[in-house]
Amino acid sequence: MAAIKSLGATSKKWAEVTPQRAGQYAEGVQAPKSDWAKNAEGANAAWKEGVSKASQADRFAKGVRAAGTGRWQEGAIGKGVQRFGPGVALAAPRYESGFAPYHRAIEALTLPPRFARRDPRNLERVKAVVAAMVATKERGG
Questions:
Q1: In this predicted structure, what is the pLDDT of residue 127?
Q2: CA 67/CA 90 separation, integer angstroms
Q3: Rounded Cα distance, 15 and 6, in Å
Q4: From CA 43, how far away is CA 49, in angstroms rounded?
Q5: CB 136 within 8 A of CB 102
Q6: Given this model, what pLDDT does residue 62 score?
Q7: Could you give the CA distance from residue 51 to residue 48 in angstroms, rounded to a whole number?
Q8: What is the pTM of this model?
Q9: Model pLDDT, residue 3
Q10: Contact 141, 101 (CB under 8 A)
Q11: What is the DSSP letter of 31?
Q12: In the prediction, which pLDDT does 2 show?
């Protein structure tokens, strides 16, 4: 039998020591050894193969079943709540630039007339917006 610290001791050390490495994490992101985008794009074929194999083996559903709703909630509440506000604030400029083409498309629309509530002709207004959104997306946003 190989000599190894107990799982509890290993887990405890990881949980205590790893958070102290936040500065090293930031340094690694700011000055990577190689270009992330170039490497990620170069891995596209491997990603497709991995996703295909995972799909064929039904790994997504198996992972969901193994985790369960409780694990998702634990992570979402324990990590997500505190990160939500700062994450949204950080993303605001990208939200604006990403939504801008759709905003312009909606703004440029001349919608059909609005009829009485529940009148099926009001769906023409919805169809006009959907068509504009699809056309904008197909043009690349």
A1: 98
A2: 29
A3: 14
A4: 10
A5: yes
A6: 97
A7: 5
A8: 0.68
A9: 87
A10: yes
A11: S
A12: 85
Q: Taking phi first (over 0 means left), then psi (-120 to 50 degrees means alpha), and beta for anything else, what does residue 87 get? A: alpha
pLDDT at position 74 is: 97
Domain ranges in the chain are 46-93
Residue 109 identity: L
What secondary structure does DSSP assign to 47-104, as a single string?
A: HHHHHHHHHHTTHHHHHHHHHHHHHHHHHIIIIIHHHHHHHHHHHHHHHHHHHHHHHH
Count CB-CB contacts under 10 A for residue 105: 19
**What's the pLDDT score for residue 97?**
95
CA-CA distances (angstroms) from residue 124 to 38, 109, 110, 117, 120? 44, 12, 11, 13, 8
Cβ neighbors of 10 (< 8 A, separation 6 or more) are 4
Segment-wise mean pLDDT, segments of 10 residues, the chain, 141 residues? 90 93 96 97 98 97 97 96 95 95 96 97 97 96 81
Residue 141 token pair: 């946003």
Q: State the Cα–Cα distance between residues 36 and 52, nearest whole angstrom.
A: 23
